[in-house]
Write a sequence for this structure.
């Protein structure tokens, strides 16, 4: 019985040692986040503003993730801790100068969120290998010219990992290493989806269609095809 009590006391002491180590690690991470967050926000702003977000401001709000049943104490507050530390990190944004700061989820539109995510993904990719990333109509609401910086940043990101992008803009589609066209059709009461890889003239024709070539005729169609080839050439040159 005496040995059992001793074992329990040893286990409690070991658990307390581990808890203190975890608390120290969480505090160290907390301080590093607070120190690096302002510079990271500025770097993200510089990267994202050219994506038709000229007035964008970003900043990180970093606070202890308070939880009465937590395992560690941070800045005098009992906090929950997991593999990401004991912080609650919120990205705040203002999309135009003079506006109030709010979380990105509250203030940004769908397209703005996607472009902010794109910029942050590029910064993250510079620190290591990125996973598969999917962007669904990240260029929504943008004209062809405004989408050019988005296309360039997507291409930059693709040098670090696999990127899939759903788009209806030829300036974005032209920079992809591969171009897939998705067809949706209804047959015998059922909807089917097929995917067609586009190469050679088929890709040129699709880019011309996105440019509005099918609705034009004569010289206009020729101009659209010529511009489609130009976009492909420029995309290849940036690879």
């Amino acid at each position: 019985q005496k040995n059992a009590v001793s074992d329990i006391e040893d286990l409690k002491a070991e658990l307390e040692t581990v808890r203190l180590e975890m608390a120290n690690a969480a505090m160290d991470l907390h301080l590093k986040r607070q120190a690096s967050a302002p510079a990271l926000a500025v770097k993200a702003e510089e990267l994202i503003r050219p994506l038709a977000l000229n007035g964008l401001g970003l900043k990180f709000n970093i606070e202890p993730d308070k939880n009465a049943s937590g395992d560690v104490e941070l800045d005098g507050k009992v906090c929950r801790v997991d593999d990401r530390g004991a912080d609650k990190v919120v990205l705040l944004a203002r999309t135009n100068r003079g506006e109030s700061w709010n979380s990105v989820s509250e203030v940004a539109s769908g397209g703005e969120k996607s472009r902010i995510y794109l910029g942050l993904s590029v910064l993250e990719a510079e620190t290591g290998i990125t996973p598969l990333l999917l962007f669904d109509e990240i260029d929504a609401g943008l004209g062809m010219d405004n989408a050019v910086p988005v296309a360039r940043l997507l291409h930059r990101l693709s040098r670090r990992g696999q990127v899939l992008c759903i788009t209806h803009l030829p300036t974005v589609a032209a920079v992809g290493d591969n171009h897939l066209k998705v067809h949706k059709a209804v047959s015998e009461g059922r909807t089917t989806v097929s995917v067609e890889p586009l190469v050679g003239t088929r890709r040129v024709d699709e880019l011309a269609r996105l440019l509005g070539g099918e609705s034009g005729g004569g010289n206009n169609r020729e101009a659209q095809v010529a511009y489609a080839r130009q976009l492909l050439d420029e995309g290849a040159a940036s690879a």
